[in-house]
Structures are given as C-alpha cells and as structure tokens.
C-alpha cells in the first residue's frame, strides 16, 4: 500500500471501520471517514491527524452516496481504496422481527454496499485499478439463531463480492470480503457473555484492533 493513496471508509467512525482507519492512517493513506453521524466522523478524522476528511452519508440513499463520492473526489482526489464497514443489526427471532427492521438491515448492510461499490468502481476504472474490501460476518457463513435477517445480508455480501470481483478483475480492481467472528463493538455490546462464549470456540471476545 503506497503512501498518499486515498481510501474511503464507510462506517469508519467506530468499531472495525475505525480500527482500519487507524491502521491505514499509520501507513500514510489519506482517508475519508464516512458515517451517518457527522460529528462522530469528524472526531475520528481529527484524531487521525491532518489531511483526512469527514463526511456524513446514508449508504442506502443513492443520491447521498453519489454526492459523497463527488465530495471526496473534490477534496482528496480519485479513490484508490474502498472499505465498507457500515452496518446495523436488529437481532430478533424471525417471527418477532418487524418488516421495517428487515428492510433497514437489507438497505444498510447489502444495498448500501452495492451502491458504494458501484460509485467506487466508476472512479477506479478511470485510474485502471483499485481495491475494495467489504466487511461481512461469520454469521453470514454459519448462521445464528436470532440473526436470520442479519445473517442473510452478510451472506449476500459474499455472493455479491465474489461476483463483482469477476466483473472488474480485468480493470485491475480487486474485491474481497472479510468475515470476522464476534468482535467487541457497539453492535455486539448487547449480547450476553454466555451467548458470546457459546459462539466463540476459544471462549473469549476479540477486539477491532486485533
């Protein structure tokens, strides 16, 4: 990874996205930290040092995504790398899950990633290269009781990422999906300790920085 490259991190203000941002900042990348909450994104960007950009975006809104990429291009230049770490969960048994909660998870976790990838690929094709990393989850591969909808969105990311990788490989654009296990973040803070121990073979939680 070369110094000075531009990386857009959606969901970069907390959890795994924030940890990725800290690592890339150390490597000399210029970052766009994108989150729904602009103030939190600004705090994260400020703590990373000078030269980084903070933006607010609802990834499920195509116009907002397009505007966000235009703003990044204007302030930082062409996008070299994209990290999709934005996501939500509404854990519940399917019979107790409200339809609006299903739609919210699908729109943010799956559609949102599709929209940001679509915008990023357009920019990367002009430069004849780039890299995209989509953050999935182990539950997208194994499933988990009470997370049927969330699991479906993360499983969808796997198929989407594999297919997109084949579409853009000739343009020198790499697409990968990472499926971490249970990581201690705000999204998993509500889980009981017993639930975590059952889900993790080693019986201990992991952290974004790891």
TrEMBL record:
Record key words, sorted: Fatty acid biosynthesis, Fatty acid metabolism, Lipid biosynthesis, Lipid metabolism, Oxidoreductase
Pfam families linked to this entry: adh_short (PF00106)
UniProt domain Ketoreductase: residue ranges: 5-185
Pathway terms, separated by semicolons: Lipid metabolism; fatty acid biosynthesis
MF GO annotations: oxidoreductase activity, acting on the CH-OH group of donors, NAD or NADP as acceptor; quinone binding
InterPro entries on file: KR_dom (IPR057326), NAD(P)-bd_dom_sf (IPR036291), Sc_DH/Rdtase_CS (IPR020904), SDR_fam (IPR002347)
Family to which this protein belongs: Belongs to the short-chain dehydrogenases/reductases (SDR) family.
GO biological process, one term: fatty acid biosynthetic process
Parts of the chain that traverse the membrane: none
Organism: Patagioenas fasciata monilis
Protein name per its UniProtKB record: 3-ketoacyl-[acyl-carrier-protein] reductase beta subunit
Coiled coil ranges: none
